[in-house]
Every structure is written in structure tokens, then in C-alpha cells.
Specification:
Length: 161
């Protein structure tokens, strides 16, 4: 699969990338420069696609909705809290930071895999269930950590070799 992808990428490079740019007329770029430029454009395209599929605003809004009940006593306070939080959050700044962080953290292949995952019906379904899974496993992990801390604090670490 990787060989096919690389072969197709090489063909696309040969067909679609202009060797001479208008600002550098007559200067032939190295293959590395061409690939790096093409990779940067592909990365930007994939990051934009991922943000269309899963906008940062949606992540923020879900986070606000999940914490809001802790700070509100009734439906009116809940609504006011959510509106206030959304008013203050700088969504554009978060989008910009998200773009930057995705570009820093993920390889091009990983961005493509994420794009494939989130555009797949089953991938999107699984992703929507991930927070439920994380809450459930997180609860169990914390129980084990608490148990371990209790054992440690009560001198039970002496039997650990």
C-alpha cells in the first residue's frame, strides 16, 4: 500500500508540480524542494479538511457543555453560563493554534490516516463514542491509582520487589 502511494505521489509530482516558479524564472528547484513544497501544501489541505470534519469550535462547545452543569444550579444559569463561556472563548485563536499544533505533531501520513478515519462512517461513529469510553476507562484507572496510593501510604510497598 505504501509503495503504491509513493509511486502515485511521484507520478503526481512529475505531472502537477511546475519546475519553474514565476518569481524564480529559469531557476530549477531540487527534487527535495519540490517534495517539501508539495508536502507542505498537502499537509495544509489535510489540516483544513480535518477542521471541516471536526471543527475546534465543536470540541470547545462540547467541553463547555460538559463542565457547565458543575457551575449552574438551574436551566437558566446553565444557559447563561454556556453563553458567557462561548462569548469569551477566542475560537479563531484556537483554530489557528490547532492548525499549528497539528502541523507540528502529526506526519503527513498520520494526517491522511486521520482524514480517512474521520471521513469513514465507522470511524466517525467510533470517534463520537470515544469520550464515553474515556470516562469509563478513566474511572477504572483512577480506582486502581487510588488503590495503589492507599497501599503505598499504608506501608504495603515493602512487598514490592
Amino acid at each position: 500500500m505504501r509503495i503504491i502511494f509513493l509511486t502515485m505521489a511521484a507520478v503526481c509530482l512529475l505531472i502537477n508540480i511546475p519546475i519553474v516558479h514565476a518569481e524564480n524564472k529559469g531557476k530549477i528547484e531540487s527534487a527535495d524542494e519540490l517534495i517539501a513544497g508539495n508536502d507542505a501544501e498537502l499537509r495544509k489541505k489535510l489540516i483544513r479538511k480535518l477542521h471541516r470534519i471536526l471543527p475546534t469550535s465543536k470540541i470547545v462547545d462540547k467541553s463547555i457543555d460538559s463542565v457547565a452543569p458543575r457551575y449552574a444550579k438551574n436551566a437558566k444559569e446553565l444557559d447563561q453560563f454556556q453563553k458567557s463561556m462561548r462569548y469569551v472563548v477566542d475560537y479563531n485563536s484556537l483554530d489557528s493554534k490547532s492548525n499549528e499544533f497539528m502541523d507540528e505533531v502529526f506526519t503527513t501520513e498520520e494526517l491522511q490516516a486521520l482524514s480517512d478515519f474521520y471521513t469513514n462512517e465507522h470511524g466517525l461513529s467510533a470517534a463520537s463514542k470515544m469520550s464515553e469510553y474515556q470516562i469509563k476507562i478513566g474511572t477504572e484507572v483512577m480506582k486502581e491509582i487510588d488503590k495503589s496510593l492507599l497501599r503505598y501510604r499504608t506501608g504495603g510497598e515493602s512487598d514490592i520487589k
